[in-house]
Write a structure and sequence with these properties.
Layout: H1 39-48, H2 51-55, H3 74-92, H4 96-105, H5 114-124, H6 133-144, H7 158-166, H8 189-197, H9 208-231, H10 237-243, H11 245-257, H12 263-293, H13 298-302, H14 313-331, H15 334-356, H16 363-369, H17 374-386, H18 390-401
Helix pairs in contact: 1-4, 3-4, 3-9, 3-12, 4-7, 4-9, 5-15, 9-12, 9-14, 10-11, 11-12, 15-17, 15-18
Family: Belongs to the dGTPase family. Type 2 subfamily.
InterPro entries: dGTPase (IPR006261), dGTPase-like (IPR050135), dNTPase_2 (IPR023023), HD/PDEase_dom (IPR003607), HD_domain (IPR006674), PHydrolase_assoc_dom (IPR026875)
Domain HD: 74-222
């Protein structure tokens, strides 16, 4: 019987600056190649089959899962990001599977209740190194998934791990100083610790596939949070038109083509055009940047000194207007803020109780806390909480305190 051979994309169709799965830098723990999948396809499949990925179904994007069946969850958001990442990668002639893998993994570290849960964990973990969802995504794929006989984590390729850690850009400058989102707080310890095992080039940009995943995230959450906010009645289309000229133009086009269109269809037609404009702008600007740099290898992309996958200046300004509107009218809306404030308090209470009483953790977690110092115990408790879904966090709160937050 003829043995199957490793499936590789037709490399002649990939751009020279694409990450080539046939020339991956490998995995932390060496494994035989798959006879039927490329290295990056294997990464994607392992992420999809992970426990952390399944938990995203019941983790908050903006609205608590029980507020409505049609609002985005962390899982549906992730699927939308992965679709957009593949589309961008395909148009840029780079590896779609790697872009998809990074997109699928980018939110694995989010705790319950979205950014509210992250804020709460970061506060209580401040004496113990803080909490960062990007660093937690790294922990999920390198340590916390305990499924395989020969290693902890998913043992992803170097390129996938690099993309998860650096998809938003370098973490340090050439001198080793933290930059960007970590300029004040410093690079999270879990990332620095892992970097001593498998050097990720934290001062360089990620490969172009990871950059595509990062921009896909921007496209997805800006357009779909707008859609969810409108459908939830947090603001009206007229308010968007007044505050965001970019949206005003698109809504006007829809109304001109479809006079008297009902509200739900107007929202959808507007949202799909927003996504199209963002994708088209990103491809135009990214193609221009690639042509200007003319990279001949993935190394050229990493050393470019700036993102190659990006929006134009005009679109960046338009998105700045939209984000400001969403922050004021959605993320800080009294209805959303009230629920999230209560969620933060619930997370803080659970953390404090389990840190003080690690014997109340499930057996395997309680065992891990034995013979450890307080800092290590705090990280274990944070890992446990970060893995919770929204509904499991409320169940745990009831188990620990005989009460369940309403969060409505």
């Amino acid at each position: 019987m003829k043995q199957p051979t490793t499936v590789n994309p037709p490399t002649e169709l990939l751009a020279p600056y694409a990450c080539d799965p046939a020339h991956s830098r490998g995995r932390l723990h060496a494994e035989p190649a798959s006879p039927t999948r490329t290295e990056f396809q294997r990464d994607r499949d392992r992420i999809i089959h992970s426990t952390a990925f399944r938990r995203l179904q019941y983790k908050t994007q903006v609205f608590i899962y029980h507020e409505g069946d049609h609002y985005r969850t962390r899982l549906t958001h992730t699927l939308e990001v992965s679709q957009l990442a593949r589309a961008l990668a395909r148009s840029l002639r780079v590896d779609e599977d790697l872009a998809e893998a990074v997109a699928l993994a980018h939110d694995l570290g989010h705790p319950p209740f979205g950014h509210a849960g992250e804020r709460a964990l970061d506060r209580v973990m401040a004496p113990f190194g803080g909490f960062d969802h990007n660093a937690q995504s790294l922990r999920a794929v390198t340590q916390l998934e305990r499924r395989y006989a020969e290693f902890d984590g998913l043992n992803l390729s170097w390129e996938a791990v690099e993309g998860i850690v650096k998809h938003n850009g370098p973490l340090i400058d050439a001198g080793g100083n933290a930059i960007g989102a970590y300029a004040k707080s410093g690079v999270p310890e879990p990332i620095l610790d892992y970097n001593t095992e498998q050097e990720l080039g934290l001062h360089l940009h990620a490969g172009i596939e990871a950059q595509a995943a990062a921009l896909a995230d921007d496209i997805a959450y800006n357009s779909h949070d707008t859609d969810d906010g409108l459908r939830a009645g947090l603001f009206e289309i007229a308010e968007l038109e007044e505050a965001v000229p970019f949206l005003r133009q698109i809504v006007a086009e829809v109304r001109e083509r479809y006079p008297g269109l009902e509200r739900n269809r107007l929202i959808h037609e507007t949202t799909r055009r927003v996504i199209t404009r963002l994708v088209e702008d990103a491809l135009t600007e990214s193609t221009r940047r690639v042509a200007s740099l003319a990279p001949r290898s993935p190394a050229d992309v990493r050393a470019a000194g700036h993102q190659l996958v990006a929006f134009s200046e005009d679109m960046t300004a338009a998105l700045r207007d939209l984000r400001a509107f969403l922050f004021a009218r959605m993320y800080r809306h009294s209805r959303v803020k009230r629920v999230m404030d209560e969620a933060e308090q619930a997370v803080e209470r659970i953390f404090a109780e389990l840190l003080a009483r690690p014997d109340r953790l499930p057996a395997e977690w309680a065992h891990a806390c034995e013979a450890t110092d307080r800092t290590h115990r705090a990280r274990i408790v944070a890992d446990y909480i970060a893995g919770m879904t929204d509904r499991f966090a409320m169940i745990e709160h009831r188990r620990l305190f005989d009460e369940t937050p309403e969060l409505r």
